[in-house]
Amino acid sequence: MNSSSRLSNYWVTCADGLETLLQEELQGLGIAQIERFPGRLIFKGTLEQAYRICMWSRLASRVLLPIHTHELERSHDARDVAEELYEGAISFDWSLIFAPQSTFAIRLHIERDIMVNSQFATLRVKDGVVDSFMEAVGRRPSIDTKQPEITLYVLAGKTEHTYCLDLSGDSLHKRGYRRYMTDAPIKENLAAAILQKAKLQQLNPDIILDPMCGSGTFIIESLMLLTDRAPGLVRRFGFNGWNGHNNELWMSIKAEAAERHQQAVTQPLPKFYAFDADWEAVKATKQNIIAAGFENLLDQIQIEERTLSDWPDFELGNKTAFIVTNPPYGERLGEKASNRALYLGLSALLQKHFPNQTAAVIAAAVEQADVMAFSDPQTMRLMNGKLPIYIRLGKIKPATVVKPFLETWQPLQFEPIEGAEDFANRLQKNMQTLKKWAVKDGVFCLRLYDADLPDFNLAIDLYGDRLHVQEYAPPKTIDPEKAKKRFNLGLAAIRAVTGLGRDAIFIKTRARQEGKNQYTKQSTASKRFIVQEGQAKILVNMTDYLDTGLFLDHRQIRLRIAKEARGKHFLNLYSYTSTASLHAALGGAASTTSVDLSNTYLNWSKENFVLNGLTVDHADEQHQFFASDCFEWLKEGHEQYDLIFIDPPTFSNSKKFHGTFDVQRDHLSLLKRAMNRLTTEGTLYFSNNYRGFEMDEEILAFFDVEEITSETIGPDFKRNQKIHRAWKISHPKN
Fold first, then answer.
1. What is the mean pLDDT of the chain?
2. Most buried of 257, 329, 512, 689, CB within 10 angstroms?
3. CB neighbours of 289 closer than 8 A, spacing ≥ 6?
């Protein structure tokens, strides 16, 4: 019988979770009667079939030919596994498999629950192979762990040890094109599996986009699949040094693969887009595409440095698109919370640009994948090395047009609430008055009521379609039971007027806060929602802190900053959740720098940025965040800024900051330091909430100062003109 047609048992290994897809792939190569085990398929076939797997499998990790089995006789308790492995290795004549002048390496896999030092056991297998050679031919091969000519794969089991020849050599996921790496890349065979699961060839899209392309793996694997390029065409294999290797058969398979690729590459291809916020990733993608042999197709691939917030207009028309990406879910991004915000932002962008198109997105946790707005989603769980990953596939839901709550709200008919009639009427009147402005300017978050009536000392803020109700703590002279009853009447009236249910109304009591107490956590419920302000999507927390993460009274100055920031370097001191920085960034700022003493708020800030598709993952990036006391930060640096916003607290102290800050006492020093960092033609906006504040005469004497408070108070704060004061400060023009 010809050696190429002789039947042998072969093992084909794969990453956990790929077994079913791999079985389908092998069946497509004409292989039947496949047994499936976790991480491994076994079939009886020919050498030609084994070679074809090496050449064509996009999913397999290794192709193994079992050579020798060593059955165990000792009881489990008395086992010396390392010596068993040695005995099994020396009991076979390895000179039948490869020549003594060849180099070799051992890959040892140990079944679960077997206790043995893997490094020592591997050494004993090597000793057994070497001693076998010495007994058979009097010469021994050398070890080469980096580029061996022969790799022996050994499975240490509970009843037997199996010694295999690794026909693949290096893992089959190594196609040979990845010359340049980025952080946390996905393995090539996993990328191919995702493309296969998404049925890329059947989709036949006009556009393929990877918006966070890393080193370009998805783009290259798509090119290989669509040009019928065999993944094994240009790499070396572990069977070349094997005595049983049939070179003539292998060369015929290789020639056939080359011919198939040449024929397929002439067919029309989709337009490819490969974007990444990291310029190093953009360079790596282009270099890897060239290394993969697709240099002549570079005109078909648009490779650019772009953030998610900077996508071009794709103008789909009747075209179809496939979006596939491996977001920087851990190693490249950092905080777990920021990761979820990234997926929320990505989902919103996909809904806007690619409604009803197909997408596949990788996540490190299923909770991240769950935020993707896909219809009929499928989920795959795979292992990328030792890391579990989740792939969410599906059709992208079209974006729903969200209108301001007041646009759809109409005055409701309801039974009078005895004791709260005046309050209900005032709230309804306020909402009717604010409706025209909110609809015209697209305002989603605003104050509906601000202690208008003395008996209902509340602040009612609308965030999207939810209410944040703060009760100003009543004086101690008021009977607590009476105050509680009145507050409950107020809540009943709020629900009746707005039509919102209990689950959309969040209640807090606002007493006078001193020092650090104003920033302490009030709850751990963590009811967080996304709201819209101008171009920005902002995360608000309705439960955990006294404030929500978005100061509504500063809306107008944030929108002003958004209009003025284009091309400018922006500095935000006491940045809180950095919403002003976010507006500046979305307005086209050249850079933003946010400084706050609280890591909690800075992490929140980063979530706001990634939610809007802005990158925050590198220290030298366009948008930077510093956990520091603002005085110290100003003193230590020298960078100049074109636009500065400072909104300090009235008073604060902190364990991190030695001493206290008082805005009236300390604003002179603060503003002088900040003006030293302002460019000659720059603008500084200064605001604070201290009602008795007086600007220091020295500031008025040294700089051009204009109070702009009236311009920064929105219609919803018209009754409370002292909610804050604001100034525009610049260097004298002389």
1. 91
2. 329
3. 177, 216, 219, 220, 223, 295, 297, 298, 301, 303
Beta bridge partners of 164: 66, 153
How would residue 516 be classed by pLDDT, with cut points 50, 70 and 90? very low
Q: What is the mean pLDDT of residues 21-46?
A: 95
Share of the chain above pLDDT 70, in %: 93
Cα dihedral sign for 530, 533, 537, 541?
negative
Taking residues 36-63, what's their average pLDDT? 96
Say yes or no to pLDDT of 185 above 90. no
- In eight-state DSSP terms, residue 642 is E
What is the domain partition of the chain in residue ranges?
8-166, 188-227+267-396, 401-512, 529-734
Cα–Cα distance for residue pair 400/487, rounded to 1 Å: 36
Residues 182, 217 contacting (CB under 8 angstroms)? no
User: How many C-beta neighbours within 10 Å does residue 440 have?
Assistant: 10
Instruction: Give 348's contacts (C-beta < 8 A, 6+ positions apart).
Output: 373, 399, 537
CATH number of 401-512: 3.30.750.80
Q: How far apart are CA 348 and CA 369, in angstroms?
A: 13
Sheet containing strand 591-596, strands side by side: 623-627, 591-596, 569-573, 641-646, 678-688, 725-730, 704-707
Mean pLDDT of 665-679: 96
592 neighbors 585 (Cβ within 8 angstroms): yes
Nearest to 405 by CA among 468, 492, 498, 470: 498
Structure tokens at 131: 């001693």
Nearest partner of 298 among 282, 318, 321, judged by Cα: 282
What is the token pair recorded at 296? 């002549």
pTM, rounded to two decimals? 0.86
Pick the CATH number of 8-166 from 3.30.2130.30, 3.30.1300.20, 3.30.460.10, 3.40.50.970: 3.30.2130.30
Residue range 392-411: average pLDDT?
Answer: 94
- DSSP assignment of 348-402 equals HHHHHH-TT-EEEEEESSHHHHHTS-EEEEEEEEEEETTEEEEEEEEEEPPPPPP
Residues 592-602: pLDDT tens digits?
999 999 999 99
